[in-house]
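My hope is that you will study the protein record below before we discuss the fold together.
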Amino acid sequence: MNKENNALWQETEQKIKQAYGHLVKTKLPEKVTVSDICREAGIHRTTFYGHYCDTAALREQLERDQVVRLLQEFRLDDAWNLERGMLAIAVFCKKHAQILRKHLLSEGRQVSSGLFPEEVREDMEKKYDDWPAAHGMRTYARVFYWAGTLAVLAEWIRRDCPESEREIADDLCRLLRHTE
């Protein structure tokens, strides 16, 4: 079956994703079941399994979809644009703050570096290539960079996003430039 050109398949795919998105507003992602999704989407379990093997596969696909959208925001005229990308991440975090806050406050979890597209992580980490490798300093600098960025985003979410998306994005860019 040509899934990309099949309108019914695409419509069902959207129903599944929307149902999941609605459910994670009230439940932790790992607590959402196939039965929950099917009930919310108005589909049968066999229909769900025609699209995904389980809820983890659905979550992974949704994360990949979001990474692609965020990756597009980091690109401007075929070049990486830190400010634009950080703003896109801040907008995403604020839009999904309710879900992310619930995730962060349960069992002391962290914001995932998966928010940043892999290409962006690799490109931004290149700035540490010239650092001396002795004593693992290059590795420590990379860990510090990502952990710090993610910690700022997590704290901003925990505090109900008091600064605007533009302010937090600008603050992150300033902090990142001070580590160069």
